[in-house]
Amino acid sequence: MQKLNFMVCATALILGAVACQDDPNTGNAGQDDTEELGEEWYSGGKLGTAFNATSFAYEQPTPAVENSGMSQAFKYGEYLFEKDFNENEYGAFHGLGPVMVRRGCFYCHPNYGHGKRQTEYKADKHGNGYLLVVTDDTDTYLSSLTGMPQTLSTLPFKAPIDESKIKIEWREYSDEWGNTFPDGEKYSLIYPDVTIPQSAYYVPLQVTKNGVITEVPFSNVKVRLESTIGVYGTGLLDAISDEDLKAEYAKQEGVGVNLNPAIFAGGNWTSLYGNTTHPKRFTYALSRGPLQDAAGANAIWNITNVTRSNRRSHYITSTYADVSSKDAEVQADFYRYYPKENKTGDVQKDIYNYLMSNSLDVEMSDEEYADFMIWHRGLAVPAARDLDDADVIQGKKLFTELGCSYCHRPSWTTGEDNFTDPSGFFADNDPRLPRYPNQKIWPYSDMVQHRLNMENDIRTGWCRTTPLWGRGLSELVTGASDRLHDCRARNVIEAIMWHGNMQSDARKSIEKFRTLSKADRDAIVKFIDAI
Fold first, then answer.
1. Whose CA is closest to 51, among 26, 68, 69, 74?
2. Domain count of the fold of the chain
3. Are the beta carbons of 29 and 50 closer than 8 angstroms?
4. Peptide bond into 204 cis (omega under 30)
5. Average pLDDT for 385-394
6. What are the φ and ψ backbone dihedral angles of 443, each rounded to 5 degrees?
7. How much is the pLDDT for 376?
């Protein structure tokens, strides 16, 4: 069993965590110290909050995990998140390839937080949370590439995109106010411009619309960056009931807020997750539904192409398989990679069938995957800090008065957390996973998509409101305070001012923010950092 291969390391992690909790200098307040705190200090509710404000703040298990005796499984899952997978056929963390986005999860989520701004695209660089978004001029993903394009490969295969040719340039942007507040204080705005030459693509450039494959002229190809967000607290967001989520959309539609018609219109969902009755709630693009089949459950398979019992295929396109199968260099070394007993002698056919197989060997055990999801669903939210500070109190007041709290809705109360798994791996309300029923949580997000109309904007222009909880600890935890979908904002002020475009849904709030005194602007920043 692979679990035994990292038992010693996991035990060391547990002992390290205990040592941190016992250290009075870590800032990890015990329960006895927090009994008198108001409810908003408990950002993740009583079952989902960890009182740890150290560099380990994003890594803590929820009280629900600890209360349910899941701590050891949580640590095993954490270990799967933190370690690289490899190309071995057997042993711990085997099964990497044949192509991959990353060799492990930790590259994209440094210390479990938001990815960091990059000046060059190197998949193996720690903190590079960027995923490439490659589309045609109508924002349709290129179907010849995977939705998250791969830039790494295992020999003899070749990556769909040669990352050595990817170029990231950071361009200065001047808004209509000349990046200057009325009192004279200046700020800076930058955004990424990403270019990939045609020679970097291993596959033809194609889109599929209505079942028809069409070649895309290179001049029509668009490339953007999207960075990963922190993974803590996602179990709590999953526990918000579908009914309450729908009520939020209906409320906003009722007062004339523009909503993405591809998600909600006329008082009802226009798109649900897959073949389920669940709304979409995860990722910037709202592409995922329940957490048990959402970004993390998907990524532990498709980022590394490590198979499991309910994902026995590669995250790969038929176009890539076709190109690879006809590549003479791949053909020459394929049988060194591929089990010889399975070859037919037709190397082109064997390559294609291997890449497109739906019955590959299982590389991650069911027990390991269950542990991973215990960890994923069990990550706590850091408690809020300094809420009794006078500046933070003033900042919260202004945050509300300016209308920021409309999209960054302060709190939700979770439902019964009767979760499901559209993939069928976990049973409904599976007792192996932690649950968070009836918790008042403070994510500061309405979970709805809005538009900021930024320069070189996110794909489609619609972006789910990112939760603000815990983000004030980002620099301490990850070494950077980068914000927004592509890390263009290096601090809170820049993030706020990127909301100010004339066509932005937040325009009125930014007009008011600009007129505040520097002390009041700083108070809002201090409040955002405190929650």
1. 26
2. 1
3. no
4. no
5. 98
6. -80, -20
7. 98
Count how many residues are written for the chain.
531
* DSSP bridge pairs for 382: 50
Tokens (6 digits) for 144: 């010849």
Tally Cβ neighbours within 10 Å of residue 259. 18
Q: What is the 3-state secondary structure (H, E, C) of 178-233?
A: CCECCCCCECCEEEEEEECCHHHECCCCEEEECCEEEECCHHHCEEEEEECCCCCC
CA distance 179 to 183: 12
Rounded-to-integer distance, Cα 26 and Cα 36, Å: 21
Look at residue 17 and tell me whether its pLDDT is greater than 80. Answer: no
The token pair that represents 261 in the structure block: 């018609």
Nearest CA to 379 out of 50, 13, 41 is that of 50
What value, to the nearest 5°, has the Cα angle with vertex 109 and ends 21 and 367? 75
- Which of 414, 411, 384 is CA-nearest to residue 400? 411
Tell how far CA 347 is from the center of its chain: 38
Query: Residue 47 and residue 63: Cα distance in Å, rounded?
Result: 5
The C-alpha atoms of residue 325 and residue 3 are separated, in whole angstroms, by 35
Give tens-digit pLDDT for 455-500: 999 999 999 999 999 999 999 999 999 999 999 999 999 999 999 9
Residue partners of 274: CB distance under 8 A and separation at least 6: 289, 293, 422
Which token pair is 498? 């990127």
Range of the domain at 283: 235-291+379-530
In a domain, 429, yes or no: yes
Name 458's Cβ contacts closer than 8 Å, sequence gap at least 6: 224, 226, 284, 485, 486
Nearest to 300 by CA among 291, 237, 151: 291
CA atoms within 13 A on the CB side of 366: 6
Out of 17-31, 48-62, 168-182, 348-362, which region has the weakest mean confidence (pLDDT)?
A: 17-31
Integer Cα distance of 6 and 79 in angstroms: 8
Q: Are 480 and 467 in contact (CB under 8 A)?
A: no
**Overall average pLDDT of the 181-202 stretch:** 98
Predicted local distance difference test score (pLDDT) of residue 338:
83
- Both tokens of residue 293? 């089949």
Please report whether residue 221 resides in a domain: no
Chain segment 70-96, per-residue pLDDT in tens: 999 999 999 999 999 999 888 889 999
**Residue 302 DSSP one-character state:** H
| In a domain? residue 91 | no
Q: Which residue has the tokens 């967001």?
A: 237
Burial of 478 (0-12, 13-18, 19+ CB in 10 A): buried
Q: Cα separations (Å) of 320 from 144, 205, 316?
A: 7, 11, 7
* Structural domain contains residue 202: no
Neighbouring residues of 423: CB distance < 8 A, sequence distance ≥ 6: 292, 293, 297, 310
